[in-house]
Amino acid sequence: MFSRKQHNVFYDYAIGRSSPVWNIRRAALNMEPSNRLINLSEPKKSHPDYAPGKPVQTVISRAAKRATASDRLEILANPENLPNIFEREWTVKRGALRAKASERVTDLANPKQVPAGFTADKIGWEIWQVSRFVKYINDLLAN
User: How big is the chain by its Cα radius of gyration, in Å?
Assistant: First the structure.
Protein backbone atom coordinates (compact mmCIF):
# COMPACT_ATOMS: atom_id res chain seq x y z
CA MET A 1 0.00 0.00 0.00
CA PHE A 2 1.15 3.48 -0.81
CA SER A 3 1.02 6.09 1.90
CA ARG A 4 0.72 9.68 0.82
CA LYS A 5 1.55 12.64 2.98
CA GLN A 6 -1.66 14.52 3.75
CA HIS A 7 -1.76 18.06 2.39
CA ASN A 8 -2.90 20.73 4.84
CA VAL A 9 -5.33 22.93 2.92
CA PHE A 10 -4.95 25.82 5.36
CA TYR A 11 -1.12 25.74 5.47
CA ASP A 12 -0.71 28.98 3.49
CA TYR A 13 -3.17 30.85 5.74
CA ALA A 14 -2.31 29.38 9.11
CA ILE A 15 -0.25 30.82 11.93
CA GLY A 16 0.34 27.69 13.98
CA ARG A 17 -3.31 26.67 13.73
CA SER A 18 -5.49 24.50 11.53
CA SER A 19 -8.14 27.12 10.65
CA PRO A 20 -7.60 29.95 8.14
CA VAL A 21 -6.99 33.53 9.22
CA TRP A 22 -10.10 35.51 8.28
CA ASN A 23 -10.27 38.90 6.62
CA ILE A 24 -10.92 41.96 8.76
CA ARG A 25 -13.57 44.47 7.62
CA ARG A 26 -12.56 48.08 6.97
CA ALA A 27 -15.08 49.31 9.55
CA ALA A 28 -13.31 47.28 12.23
CA LEU A 29 -9.92 48.69 11.16
CA ASN A 30 -11.16 52.30 11.36
CA MET A 31 -13.08 51.85 14.62
CA GLU A 32 -12.12 53.87 17.72
CA PRO A 33 -11.88 51.69 20.86
CA SER A 34 -14.09 52.54 23.83
CA ASN A 35 -12.67 53.49 27.23
CA ARG A 36 -13.78 50.11 28.57
CA LEU A 37 -11.81 48.29 25.86
CA ILE A 38 -8.72 50.42 26.54
CA ASN A 39 -8.96 49.60 30.28
CA LEU A 40 -9.31 45.89 29.52
CA SER A 41 -6.27 45.94 27.23
CA GLU A 42 -3.94 47.33 29.91
CA PRO A 43 -1.75 44.77 31.70
CA LYS A 44 -2.75 43.68 35.17
CA LYS A 45 -1.08 45.72 37.91
CA SER A 46 0.85 43.96 40.64
CA HIS A 47 -0.33 44.04 44.23
CA PRO A 48 1.26 46.94 46.15
CA ASP A 49 2.61 44.54 48.81
CA TYR A 50 4.11 42.14 46.26
CA ALA A 51 7.73 41.23 46.94
CA PRO A 52 9.63 39.42 44.20
CA GLY A 53 11.22 36.06 45.00
CA LYS A 54 14.67 35.87 46.54
CA PRO A 55 17.59 35.03 44.28
CA VAL A 56 18.27 31.33 43.85
CA GLN A 57 21.93 31.51 44.73
CA THR A 58 22.57 32.46 48.32
CA VAL A 59 25.66 34.25 49.55
CA ILE A 60 27.79 31.98 51.75
CA SER A 61 29.35 33.76 54.69
CA ARG A 62 33.13 33.72 55.33
CA ALA A 63 32.62 31.88 58.62
CA ALA A 64 30.76 29.08 56.84
CA LYS A 65 33.53 28.85 54.24
CA ARG A 66 36.21 28.51 56.94
CA ALA A 67 34.27 26.08 59.16
CA THR A 68 35.54 22.54 59.72
CA ALA A 69 33.52 19.52 60.75
CA SER A 70 34.02 18.03 64.22
CA ASP A 71 35.20 14.43 64.71
CA ARG A 72 31.69 13.39 65.75
CA LEU A 73 30.20 14.93 62.59
CA GLU A 74 32.76 13.06 60.46
CA ILE A 75 31.72 9.77 62.11
CA LEU A 76 28.04 10.51 61.50
CA ALA A 77 28.75 11.37 57.86
CA ASN A 78 30.20 7.91 57.13
CA PRO A 79 27.77 5.37 55.62
CA GLU A 80 26.53 2.55 57.83
CA ASN A 81 28.15 -0.84 57.30
CA LEU A 82 25.16 -3.09 56.70
CA PRO A 83 25.54 -6.83 56.17
CA ASN A 84 24.88 -8.08 52.66
CA ILE A 85 21.61 -10.02 53.00
CA PHE A 86 22.14 -11.92 49.76
CA GLU A 87 25.09 -13.80 51.21
CA ARG A 88 23.10 -15.20 54.13
CA GLU A 89 22.03 -18.82 54.16
CA TRP A 90 19.45 -20.30 56.44
CA THR A 91 19.39 -23.93 57.29
CA VAL A 92 16.10 -25.59 58.10
CA LYS A 93 16.20 -28.26 60.78
CA ARG A 94 15.18 -31.80 59.83
CA GLY A 95 12.51 -31.78 62.51
CA ALA A 96 10.87 -28.74 60.93
CA LEU A 97 10.86 -30.44 57.53
CA ARG A 98 9.11 -33.55 58.95
CA ALA A 99 6.58 -31.60 61.06
CA LYS A 100 2.83 -32.15 60.52
CA ALA A 101 -0.01 -29.91 61.66
CA SER A 102 -2.22 -31.16 64.50
CA GLU A 103 -5.97 -31.65 64.07
CA ARG A 104 -6.64 -28.47 66.03
CA VAL A 105 -4.40 -26.37 63.73
CA THR A 106 -6.03 -27.95 60.67
CA ASP A 107 -9.51 -27.07 62.02
CA LEU A 108 -8.42 -23.50 62.70
CA ALA A 109 -7.04 -23.22 59.15
CA ASN A 110 -10.46 -23.96 57.59
CA PRO A 111 -12.56 -20.93 56.57
CA LYS A 112 -15.68 -19.97 58.52
CA GLN A 113 -18.88 -21.70 57.44
CA VAL A 114 -22.15 -19.97 56.65
CA PRO A 115 -24.39 -19.89 59.76
CA ALA A 116 -27.35 -22.29 59.88
CA GLY A 117 -30.58 -20.75 58.59
CA PHE A 118 -28.81 -18.08 56.50
CA THR A 119 -30.53 -17.21 53.22
CA ALA A 120 -28.66 -15.16 50.65
CA ASP A 121 -30.20 -12.05 49.07
CA LYS A 122 -31.99 -12.45 45.78
CA ILE A 123 -29.60 -11.56 43.04
CA GLY A 124 -29.91 -11.02 39.32
CA TRP A 125 -32.94 -10.16 37.24
CA GLU A 126 -35.53 -11.44 39.74
CA ILE A 127 -35.25 -8.28 41.85
CA TRP A 128 -36.02 -6.02 38.91
CA GLN A 129 -38.82 -8.06 37.35
CA VAL A 130 -41.93 -5.87 36.88
CA SER A 131 -45.27 -7.50 37.55
CA ARG A 132 -47.84 -7.91 34.76
CA PHE A 133 -50.33 -5.73 36.66
CA VAL A 134 -47.95 -2.76 36.69
CA LYS A 135 -47.31 -3.23 32.97
CA TYR A 136 -51.07 -3.30 32.37
CA ILE A 137 -51.60 -0.07 34.35
CA ASN A 138 -48.72 1.58 32.48
CA ASP A 139 -50.32 0.64 29.14
CA LEU A 140 -53.67 2.08 30.27
CA LEU A 141 -52.08 5.38 31.31
CA ALA A 142 -50.10 5.61 28.05
CA ASN A 143 -53.29 5.33 25.93
Answer: 42
